[in-house]
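Q: What would this chain look like folded?
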Amino acid sequence: MSTLTGSNGSDSISGTTSADTILSGNGSDYVSAGDGNDYVDAGNGDDIVEGGSGDDTLLGANGKDRVFGGLGNDNLSGGNGTDAVYGGSGDDVIGSIDGSSALYTGDNGGDTLYGDGYDSYADYLLGAGHESARPGNDRIYGGNGDDLIYGDNGNHAALGGDDIIAGANGKDTIYGEGGNDKIAGGAGGDTLSGGCGADVFVYNAVSDSTAAGMDVITDFRQGPDHLDLRPVLGDTGFEWGGRQPTAHGAWFQQSGGNTYVYVDVDGNPATAEMVIKLNGLHELTKSDFAGYDNHAPTAMADTHAIGEDNSPNPITGNVLSNDSDVDAGNVLAVANPGTYAGQYGTLTLHADGSYSYALDNGNGQVQALRQGQQVQDTFNYEVSDGQAGAASSLSIRITGANDGATITASASEDKAVTEAGGAGNADPGDASASGKLTVTDVDTGEALFAAVPPESLAGHYGTFSFNSNTGAWSYTL
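A: My prediction, written as structure tokens:
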């Protein structure tokens, strides 16, 4: 890594193949950063800066600069003065610093462009080149001032990307061109054109389009295009009046071959706070407004299984994997993520639908399950697309396993027999012994002895008898 410093004259500086820091100083300089991730501050003067390869940071500073990002994901700024900034290939971030009149070209890649001019300035922002076909999904922010913004490809509407374009303050002219664009003109009377694709015209505040500063949407198409009033009227819906003025809602009227959308937010529709002009005659319905033609997702019930004392434990899955939504672009999520205690175990459920269920093998009810016996833990959840929801459930099927029985005898049992008589022995002996066995088993209904016939068994010296119902036994010599 090297640091290259220019003079106050007109310098020509070439960087190395490594990551350079180049400070060209004052004067009208030519800087070629070369390879590597370089940092260039061109200083004062009318400079030409070329980034070359690498992820570069290029600052034009003061003067009428021409800045070329080249290859890589670059961070570019023209600075003060009338600048031309070209992002080149890669995902570039392009912004000015108080530029009085600037041209910004994103070129290929998903670029972010910031105009940031003052009210008296005018920026020209082109997401991917005004004259050549260079598609990319760009984010373009015009900043204050009267801006001219092309989302992609200039007038080449067929090759555009999906752009996010925000005009901010000023009377902006915005062309979304090809792709499915989100366009917000911001405050001031803006002229908006979505171009090809399914475009959404977003209104974040009442001041974005008023009777005194009215937006004009030149190419609104019912079906693919939508107006998004949710930042103004709320996410859950609004009153739709059709052609009738409606409190806390929206309605439309037609005049002079055009359509006007009126919005009331203070409950007095006689003085609508917002007015938006759509070129042409449109019989608007509530479905022309983003979010309000939304369909609830389809949520399917989920099942999983686990065995007592078996692996794996916990088990995992995703409850959203079998759910769907007919509205393109909606992202599904679990509305009530969290950790929930069930009757037999614990469920941990995440917003992205992933879950884990841990069976509590120390639970007496779990251990009481017989071999093959099944019970179920059920948990309810809601699937949301951000606007509507659908209820569903996750059921965990638990299968029992056989647990070994324990047999015990009482300590006071008579366990010995004695032969009677004998030479010179008058002892009558003790020809019998008896007792009782007890069986225990944690598996429900399995604490018993199996009846194995016959109940009496003749041995070599005596007979053994066992009652499987009571556990009583006896032995006779």
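Residues 97-101, 116-135, 152-160 have pLDDT under 50 and may be disordered.
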